[in-house]
Amino acid sequence: MINSRCASVVFLSERLTFANDDDPFAKLQLQMMGAFAEFERKMISKR
Fold first, then answer.
1. What pLDDT shows up at residue 1?
2. Which residues lie below 8 Å from residue 46, measured CB to CB, with a gap of 6+?
3. What is the phi/psi pair of residue 6, to 5°?
4. Rounded CA gap, 4 and 13, in Å?
5. Rounded to 5 degrees, what are φ and ψ at 13?
6. SS3 at position 11
7. Of 14, 16, 21, 42, which is the most buried if we count CB atoms within 10 A?
8. For the chain, how far is it from start to end, CA to CA, in angstroms?
9. What's the whole-model pTM score?
């Protein structure tokens, strides 16, 4: 995962920043955004 490499993820349009910390809520948010992005990619590829 990106956070395990001491990196930060910044989403400019949503004004979200995920830094390398142990915040369980931030980890949940990042994982959910990834799951929705994967779902969207698969739905688009089925068209």
1. 58
2. none
3. 60, 40
4. 24
5. -70, -30
6. strand
7. 16
8. 30
9. 0.66
